Amino acid sequence: MTEILTTHAGSLPRSPKLIDANAARPVGADGLTPEPTDEFREVLRQAVADVVAKQRSIGISIPNDGEYGHLMGSAVNYGSWWSYIFDRVSGLELTGDDHFSSEPVRSSPGNVRLTTFPDRRDWTTFADAYQDPTSGITVGTQVTFPAATGEIAYSEAGRELGQQDIANFRAALDASGYERGYLAALSPGSGSRIVDDHYGDEDAFLDAWVEVMRPEYEAIAAAGLIVQIDDPSIAENWDQINPEPSVEDYLAFTRKRVDAVNRALVNVPTEQTRFHLCWGSWHGPHTTDIEFRHIAPLLLEIDAKYYSFEAANVRHEHEWTVWEQLELPEDKVIVPGIVSHATNVVEHPELVAQRLERFARIVGPDRVIGSTDCGLGGRIHPQIAWAKLESLVQGAEIASKRL
After folding, report:
1. Which residues, if any, are the signal sequence (predicted)?
2. Distances in Å between the alpha carbon of 110 and those of 193, 247, 253, 272, 276?
3. What are residue 90's DSSP bridge partners?
4. pTM score > 0.85 for this model?
């Protein structure tokens, strides 16, 4: 029997103890970086050991550290996958000028530019629903993001935090008997979405983020771990361009960000790399998401072995048929989302099996790893999140037996 493996997209629910310990840490003089303490380090170390052990007990094949080193000080948080890097990069400053407070930016043919977060086309199309607290739409707690006010660089503090994540995770893997696991890291393109008050040139700012992120990728790979590049921007940027651009203009805009990922990964073995694409984890209509068929070929240009993407939520589940037209190179593996972060309904194991079988019949069961659409931590209740992972494993077992 060919076993279909399971994993997840990254963030897992934090314990109240870890959230409280993070929220209680004093912030340094830059207003961004929480001061580390021995007490917090121990809380974090034990939390990582516990979450890896829990993944083992459920039966997850390829675990991570729950992104616990990507710190959250509240139970609801949609942005720690991105904001964690602000603790690790010099040249950033809280200026009050961010993507929530700035004026909207308009694009034109041949001149694609990101606008502000509140000016997203999905948010403006459904403005009444977004502003109604009873609508069920959630985007997480919006925080003030820094701007680049000087030359950015991966700081010494960043290297220490990265090594702390690696050490905690390696120890937890060994304790739970895992042979492999992955750590998530921000993409250069997603990093470059913060406000640039220094470089004054989009391409130069993107190039700077390539140099910033390369040390983190290389450190993770050097420890024998898989590097997951988190890059919602490849798909999500489409909704943050106003008015809607042509597909051709968007692909030209996005290809620069794909090239940036590849340049940052130049010293990381392809077999130790996986790439995560999504359309943004907020719980909203998503009617302005770009179709997967437009960007899937570009996805395969990224120098990774594993490709993680949303395939379970109701806006994108139908797009599994893309793989009937798009040939997956023989040395590549797809990691589709099989359970969703966007609903409190726990998927039935039989539905999980059916979804996995769709992909397995196209590319082969040995080239499919069942996953989640996005990270579950900070987005749905912990009890529901763990139930979804249990259902994922049960469904993979059903599919494996049938295939």
Report:
1. none
2. 19, 11, 9, 36, 27
3. 153
4. yes
